[in-house]
Amino acid sequence: MIEIVTCVFLVVGAFFIFVAGLGILRMPDIFLRMSATTKAGTIGLGALLVGLAVFYHDIGIDARALATIGFVFLTAPVGAHRIGRIAYLVGLPLWEKTVKDELKGVYPQDACAPPGEVCMMPERRSGWPKTTPEAETES
C-alpha cells in the first residue's frame, strides 16, 4: 500500500515538473514563464518529497523533506516575484496579447536603481533595440 501511495506522489510530482519545463519552452514572455515554472515546479517538488517521506517512513527523512518543502514554498515565489519586478523595471517587453498592464505608471522611471544612480538599461524603455543605421554608428 505504501508503494502505491509513493508512486502516486512521484507520478504527480513528475507531471508537475514536466509542466514546469513545458512552461519554460512554450510561454511567450518572461513573466508567464516565471508564473508557470514557479507554481508547477513548487508543487512538483513538494509532491516528490512527500512521496520520498512516505516511502522511507523515517523521522529524520520526514523532517528533512518537510523542511525542504517549506523552504521551497517560501523562497521560490519570493525569488520569482523579485526577478519579475526587476524584469518589469528594466523594461523587458510584455507579451503583445497582454490585456492589462496594472503596473503601468506606478513606478517612476528610475525605480530599479538605488537613489542617486541610473537604471542599468534605460534604453529598453525608449524603443530598444535600436535598429536604425544611425544607432549603429553611435556605438
Structure commentary:
With 139 residues, this protein is an all-alpha fold. The chain has a domain at 2-89. 64% of the residues lie in helices and 0% in strands. It has 4 helices and no strands. Helix 1 runs antiparallel to helix 2 (30-56) and helix 2 (30-56) runs antiparallel to helix 3. The longest helix has 31 residues, at 59-89. The N and C termini lie far apart (67 Å).
Shape annotation: elongated
Q: State which percent range the strand residues make up.
A: under 5%
What share of residues is helical?
55-70%
Helices, by number, come to 4
Structural class: mainly alpha
In round numbers, the mean pLDDT is 83
Largest sheet: none
Low-confidence stretches: 122-133
- Per DSSP E runs of 2 or more residues, the count of β-strands stands at 0
- How far apart are the termini? 67 Å
What's the order of the H and E elements? HHHH
Mind telling me the C-alpha Rg? 21 Å
Can you give keywords for this protein?
139 residues, mainly alpha, 4 helices, elongated
Could you write a compact summary of the structure shown?
15% of the residues are buried. This protein has 139 residues and is an all-alpha fold.
Question: What's the SSE blueprint?
Answer:
Elements: H1 2-26, H2 30-56, H3 59-89, H4 133-138
Helix pairs in contact: 1-2, 2-3
